Amino acid sequence: MDNRISELRRTIRALRVSMREAEAIMHEQINRAEDCSFVAQEVIKMRSVMGLLAKERIALGDHEPILVNNVFIPRRRPARKPVAAPSPAAESVFRPRLVARA
Rounded to two decimals, what is the model's pTM? Predict the structure, then answer.
């Protein structure tokens, strides 16, 4: 029974690291405006597996927290897009014209 708890703890620890890496990849894809649906589905699958492992671990009587080395990935601020000044040609096309009335 004790071996099963140790095995569950190792699996949960590895799964947490994998989830953090997948979430970091997903955030990078979001920042680049790419499709991240595949990675998001994988993270959801990992969460469902994590839930089952956690329930099994608690059913075996293990209530101690599982510590994972912090894999801190700093979040970058979104890049500011420079505001382009309108070109003179576009300005003259959209400028209202005054017409003298008689």
Answer: 0.60
